[in-house]
Amino acid sequence: MLVRHHWLGIGAGILAGAVWGLVFLTPELTRGFAPIQLSAGRYLAYGLVACALLARTWRRLARSLSWREWHTLAWLGFAGNIIYYVFLANAVQLGGVAMSSLIIGLLPVTITLAGRRDADAAPMLRLLPSLALGVAGLACISWQSLSAPQHGSAQGSFIGLLCAVGALVSWTLYAVGNSRALARLKGISAHDWSLLVGVVTGAQALLLAVPAFILAPGVHAASNWLYFGGVVTTVAILCSVVGNALWNHASRLLPLTMTGQMIVFETLFALLYGFLWEGRWPTGLEWLAMGLLVGGVLSCASAHRERRVPEPALGA
């Protein structure tokens, strides 16, 4: 049966998904701004908020980090934030919220495969039903996207599909690397680690801001820029600060093969927000894809429930 810290981790994962689902609406709320501008704006705001929250403990944390940790922070910020969100924003604007969120919903499959050799992973044989359901869900939404595109032409939807796959790959790398870094670090809380990622990502976003806002500023009124700033700052606080802290807490309480399954809640909430935004019900294939993804999560939870894993000390 699942032990207490697993249920706490599942709760944190669900809340992180509910917050992260809002990310998929941001490109729709800010149409007219380029994806690179969305990524730069969001992570500049994330970096500023993270710096403010770490101001009192910065010296202590900085002294406790080795060169290896700084290198890990740098590539986590680049792969899991900067590159991921450029891909995702392009995918949403070209292919729509539903297609993008359902492709990202394949993260449980990719993360489970990446973590299959970890010591606390469930045996691969028990995970096969979950993986099969996830792949079937991907097949449904791919067919939906290419045969009946919701946004523009079939060619645009195909490019959006490729961008969504790029986002899938980049965030898989982030999730696996982040989970293993948290398991290795004992003196840094999950929340502080999330904020440190934010500081490094903010520094990277400064470099991204040059081509995003100076070389290709676009033509926008002052009120539009103010609106844009409000949206990306809200997303930075809710999704990057609060959502990442919840996710890191879940990552310390759950095995990696089970942590990956929690991503499906981001997909489900993103779909809910997207359907409300578009004012429509899901199509038949979208209903089927959602059912297959949820079935995959339940199957994975069952595979872990059959195993007893010694309960670790709770992370901060």
Proportion of helical residues = over 70%
How many H/I helical runs?
14
Low-confidence stretches: 308-316
State the end-to-end distance.
24 Å
Structural account:
There is one protein chain. The model is unreliable at 308-316 (pLDDT under 50). The chain starts with a helix and ends in an 11-residue tail after the last helix. The relative contact order is 0.23. Helix content is 78%, strand content 0%. By secondary structure, it is mainly alpha-helical. It has one domain (4-305). The longest helix is centred in the C-terminal third of the chain and has 32 residues, at 222-253. Helix 6 packs parallel to helix 9. The chain has helices at residues 4-20, 26-29, 35-54, 58-64, 67-95, 97-104, 107-114, 124-147, 154-184, 190-215, 222-253, 256-259, 263-278, 284-305.
Question: What would a concise description of this structure say?
Answer:
By secondary structure, the chain is mostly helical.
For this entry, give a set of tags.
316 residues; mainly alpha; 78% helix; disordered C terminus
SSE diagram, text form:
Elements: H1 4-20, H2 26-29, H3 35-54, H4 58-64, H5 67-95, H6 97-104, H7 107-114, H8 124-147, H9 154-184, H10 190-215, H11 222-253, H12 256-259, H13 263-278, H14 284-305
